[in-house]
Amino acid sequence: MAVVAIMAGSVSAVSAQIDLKARADSVHQARQQAAILTHQDSLQLADSDSIATAEAGKRAKRDWSTWRPNPKRALWLAIVLPGAGQIYNRKYWKLPIVYGGVVGCIYAMRWNNMMYKDYSQAYMDIMDNDELTQSYNQFLHLGTKIDDSNKAQYQEIFRKRKDRYRRWRDLSVFSLIGVYALSVVDAYVDASLSEFDISEDLSLRVEPAVLNSNADRNPLKSSAIGLQCSIRF
């Protein structure tokens, strides 16, 4: 009986150890599953946050009604490239004016320079005595010839036209510089005035008023009746 009791006690002890080990294993597995689920939840949360951030970045657009250009940036852009300051200020309607002025000045400069070279060569040819150099004939009317009777007259004509086209060429260069400078100034001033607040409640009010003068101590003589103008912003 004693042996049986000892064997029963040992069996119960072994079964208790097995139960404890099983419980420990189940607790460890539960902890592992909880850790895996927590990691998955954190990954899903991070993914959802990144997706939400990306969507917010896509949805967040610049409010152009409250945007104000930087005058210094507009100035440097206009200096580097004509018209870039107007693009930065979002004044696209000024681009045809700027580029039209630039292209017109360049065309006038090239045309006047070409005519100046042609008339300069014609003037040099008519001034020498070489009969092989007669480039001035291209400027003469059909059937017109230059001889000793009218040579001095045509020499003066070619000289004046040469000087005229040279002067127009130089004016075209200065005009091009002026258009470039005006585009730079316009970009800077336009960007600076973007912060200027103009109220819609602008009115001019004219009303009678009594004007006091301190020149005379007599109150009857020191006051006068007149009109007073006031501007309300």
Can you walk through the features of this model?
There is one protein chain. By secondary structure, the protein is mainly α. The protein contains five helices and two strands, in the order αααααββ. It has helices at residues 2-59, 71-80, 84-88, 95-127, 151-192, and strands at 203-212, 223-232. The protein has a two-stranded antiparallel ribbon. The termini are far apart. The model is unreliable at 1-8 (pLDDT under 50).
Keywords:
5 helices; 2 strands; elongated; 233 residues
Order of neighbouring strands in the sheet with most strands: 1-2
Q: Largest beta sheet, briefly?
A: 2 strands, antiparallel
Q: What is the total tally of β strands? A: 2
Please tell me how large the radius of gyration is: 47 Å
* Overall mean pLDDT: 76
**Which class best fits the helix and strand makeup?**
mainly alpha
What is the CA-CA span between the terminal residues? 115 Å
User: What proportion of the residues is helical, as a percent range?
Assistant: 55-70%
> What is the number of helices?
5
Percentage of residues in DSSP E strands:
5-15%
Low-confidence stretches: 1-8
What order do the SSEs take from the amino end to the carboxyl end, as H and E? HHHHHEE
